[in-house]
Amino acid sequence: LNSFNMSRDIDGGCGYTSRDIVEMDRLLSISRDLSQKVDTNETAANELLQQCEVLQQKIKAMIEYQSAVQEISGGEDHPRGPPRIEFSYIRQLQQDNSELRTLLEEYEAALEMIMGKYRDQVYDCVC
Prior knowledge:
Blueprint: H1 2-10, H2 18-72, H3 87-126
């Protein structure tokens, strides 16, 4: 009977011991943590739903594009792809590229010679 009276004195007469109060505080803390985790999970779920909606719109646009391509190509299932470029045409482009590179080097050399002469004349005029 004495221990019961002491516990009533500690908690103001409501019948809870200090151990009960500590346990309730712990449970309240756990409840707050769980509530925060639920909020975080709900936010993440909402973000995933938004991403799914965006993906669904992209897929819908791709399907519409594919059907437009099929309609334009006369209903062929597999588009032909880019046209093949003739090997001789590629070889000609490479030859043209080589000639242009040679011309560029010649122009650079001529420009360097002209600039060198200009620098010499400016130096002669200054001195």
